[in-house]
TrEMBL record:
Record family assignment: Belongs to the HisA/HisF family.
Active-site residues from the entry: D11, D130
The organism of origin for this protein: Paenalkalicoccus suaedae
Protein name: Imidazole glycerol phosphate synthase subunit HisF
Reaction equations catalysed: 5-[(5-phospho-1-deoxy-D-ribulos-1-ylimino)methylamino]-1-(5-phospho-beta-D-ribosyl)imidazole-4-carboxamide + L-glutamine = D-erythro-1-(imidazol-4-yl)glycerol 3-phosphate + 5-amino-1-(5-phospho-beta-D-ribosyl)imidazole-4-carboxamide + L-glutamate + H(+)
Pathway assigned to this chain's UniProt record: Amino-acid biosynthesis; L-histidine biosynthesis; L-histidine from 5-phospho-alpha-D-ribose 1-diphosphate: step 5/9
Gene Ontology process terms (BP): L-histidine biosynthetic process
Predominant location category: cytoplasm
Role description: IGPS catalyzes the conversion of PRFAR and glutamine to IGP, AICAR and glutamate. The HisF subunit catalyzes the cyclization activity that produces IGP and AICAR from PRFAR using the ammonia provided by the HisH subunit.
């Protein structure tokens, strides 16, 4: 079994880290450069930086902030938000990111995944999927533009397509669970993890250490991402890892 990864997430808006509930009611959580350095010291396995309003506002990711964050880190660093072309990927990777995360742009133009994978290798391409349960359709649907726009795509089918195009990893966020701290979406995570051959990062719903254990064992996730509980010091990366090791899980 591959070692499980714990990944703090920096949702950045206008140069500050923010956190909300189900993608709304955002509140300030600190400076991205300071938080990145803090998580690196704490033993985070990776860091994800998402410029959450870039696609919605139709602008590019903040390269200067990416450069500053990358300058503080010794761990892998994924950047997403407003990446719409191969040239955007080049700029972000040159600024110090190890991977790029594609969401809205990949849904609008799926061949972008293949272009990135062919040029940089699949290991650099993360496809982020914002998923929400649709009662009427009895399935999880894909949302874009920071969770603002529903699409006609079904989550598991889109995950499979993304991997077939060259995605090296899936970052799966449950919008229903986001910020609720009631646990990850286990059924959703398990379904996607079983459907694809690449690592799946579970996101949305982390509220305590037990939630990480459940998403790794029952949800079959390869990594788990969290924001609120780390930003507001409700627990730490170190404490989560110690707990998981105690449960016999393979942790870095």
């Amino acid at each position: 079994m591959l070692t499980k990864r714990i990944i703090p997430c920096l949702d950045v808006k206008e140069g500050r880290v923010v956190k909300g509930v189900q993608f709304v009611d955002l509140r300030d959580a600190g400076d991205p450069v300071e938080l990145a350095a803090f998580y690196d010291e704490q033993g985070a396995d990776e860091l994800v930086f998402l410029d959450i309003s870039a696609s919605h506002e139709g602008r590019e990711t903040m390269v200067d902030v990416v450069e500053q964050v990358a300058g503080t880190l010794a761990i892998p660093f994924t950047v997403g938000g407003g990446i719409n072309a191969l040239s955007d990927m080049k700029r972000i990777l040159r600024a110090g990111a190890d991977k790029v995360s594609l969401n809205t742009a990949a849904v609008l133009r799926p061949e972008l995944i293949k272009e990135g994978a062919d040029f940089f290798g699949s290991q650099c391409i993360v496809v982020a999927i914002d998923a929400k349960w649709d009662e009427a359709l009895d399935s999880w649907r894909v949302y874009t533009h920071g969770g603002r726009k529903a699409t006609d795509r079904e989550v598991i089918a889109w995950a499979k397509e993304a991997v077939s195009l060259g995605a090296g990893e899936i970052l799966l966020t449950s919008m229903d669970e986001d910020g609720e701290k009631s646990g990850f979406a286990i059924e959703l995570t398990k379904a996607v993890s079983e459907a694809v051959s690449v690592p799946v990062i579970a996101s949305g719903g982390a509220g305590n250490q037990e939630h990480f254990e459940t998403v790794f064992t029952d949800g079959k996730a390869d990594a788990a991402l969290a924001a609120s509980i780390f930003h507001y010091k409700e627990t730490s990366v170190e404490e989560v890892k110690t707990y998981l090791r105690g449960k016999g899980l393979p942790i870095r």
